[in-house]
Amino acid sequence: MACKSSKCGCKSHYVSRLIKQMNDNSCVDVCNNPICGTPGVLNILAPLIYDEIGINLCTSIDLGVDIPTTYPTVTNASVQIVNISYENGEGGVTVEAIAGRKHCYLVTLSNLLITFAVKLYDSSCRLVDTIYPTATYLPPEADPAYDEDTNPSSVELEIFAPYGLSYDVTGDTPTPVVTNISFTTTTNVVTQGLNLYGIPKLLGFNVNDSTVTIGVTIVLQSLYYAGYMVATEGKIDTPKGCTLNADNTDCIQFVKGELLNLAIKPLELGLPSCSNCCKKDECCSQVVEGTITTEI
Fold first, then answer.
1. Long-range CB contacts (< 8 A, 24+ apart) of 29-32?
2. By CB neighbour count within 10 A (0-12 exposed, 13-18 middle, 19+ buried), where does 67 fall?
3. What is the mean pLDDT of the chain?
4. Which of 4, 32, 86, 170 has the maximum number of C-beta atoms within 10 A of its C-beta?
């Protein structure tokens, strides 16, 4: 359709219906005077789990260090998963559409290389050291860790994922992927589509043999973000650390004073209520008046 304006570069201009209605009702202009306070409801972009399925696996792991020799005082241990690594594709993790069931997918898991943080303690529960062994869960049948009952070569999981998958687009053709959620700087995020994470349990710690037996719950989930309005009981009251100092400068007073918090009230994305928003609230001012010192 031709532009109604004679000017070049005509473009459509949109404004939030909420802000427009507030302006039309002679309410406060939040673009100039944001409203302070706590809203009755919070508008959040929430990661919603649409489906989830889990399995339990178990294997014994050589710690790769002689515990009695290297850590003679160690008697106890605990475990955390640091990372789960795998290939998205043949021989690793694959995702296939299920014929005739357009919102469900078949996910095959195999060759999950899990890195653990095993913390070693003495008899007084003091941390002696942390070591980082790795183990393959769902290994090939020829692998010593393979066990038909507790650590098979692969599993197939069916999952409901109505809004689709995430894709790796680095190659010529986009490839569906399952995203790993772990505890590294590159994997500690939640993404839309299919996610996989693990929860470990230390089942046995053989000090003499320097081995551990670790059970792992592997969870596959479908997740998508959606905007929701949720009730609120107010902002978090963060406990403040205190410091002792005899000086009384502005900086010292600030450091010893209350913690800052965000004051501007989020707009409630429903029918606007202007009864409490027509009064200008000076607490929202971000402008600080300067001081001038005159030398005599």
1. 30/267, 30/277
2. buried
3. 85
4. 86
